Amino acid sequence: MCARSRRPAGVPTRVDSPLAPVFDGQSRVLILGTMPSPKSREVGYHYGNPQNRFWRVMAALWGEEPPRGREACRDLALRRHFALDDVLASCTITGASDASIKDPVPNDLRARVLDHAPIRAIFCTGATSHRLYTRLIEPTLGIEATRLPSTSPANASWSLERLVEAYRVMLSYLQD
Predict the structure, then answer these.
(1) 77-114 per-position pLDDT tens digit
(2) Which of 13, 70, 81, 90 could form a disulfide with 105 if both were Cys (CB 3.0 to 4.6 A apart)?
(3) What average pLDDT does the segment 117-130 reach?
(4) Alpha helix (H) residue ranges in 10-137
(5) What is the pTM of this model?
(6) Sheet holding 13-16, edge to edge
(7) How far is CA 11 from CA 17, 70, 76, 142, 146, in A?
(8) In angstroms, how far is CA 56 from the centroid of its own chain?
C-alpha cells in the first residue's frame, strides 16, 4: 500500500508503479492501462478509483455484479482469464493526467506477463496507453495492441453501455 503523496495536486511527480501485474497460467488477454492513478496506487489495485468504470464494464460483459475491493477484482480477472498491467513502469506525471506524462519508462511485458501466460491479444485502455505502447513497446515486442476507449471518468462522452459494447471485442479471445 502506498502512502498518500504530500505534494500539491498540480505538481509533476516522478512515479514508479507499485502494482504487480494480475495474471495466471490461464490468462488469454492482456489489458494495459497507462500508469496507475494516485487512487489506484493508494488502494493497491488496477482501476481502484471507484469513479473509474473499468470493473463495471468487465462485470457487465458476463452479467455479473461489479466487484468491490482488490481481492474481488483480482478474482474476476482470473476467473474470466484476463490479465492486467500497465504500459509504464515509471514516468513523471501530474496527478492522474495522462496528458502530463513525461520521461516514460515502459514495463517489460514479456518478462512480467507474456513469458508466463498464453496471451492471445493485447488491448490498451485509452489513447495514451495505446500511443505509448505503440511507440515504446510494440517495436521490440512485435505484437500489435487494440485500442479501447478509456473507462476513466474523464471520458464522460462514453456511456457505460457504449463502453461495454466496445469491450466486447475481447470476448472472442477469452473463449476456449
Answers:
(1) 999 999 999 999 999 998 888 889 999 999 999 999 99
(2) 90
(3) 97
(4) 38-43, 54-61, 70-79, 109, 127-136
(5) 0.92
(6) 13-16, 88-94, 97-106
(7) 18, 28, 35, 35, 32
(8) 14
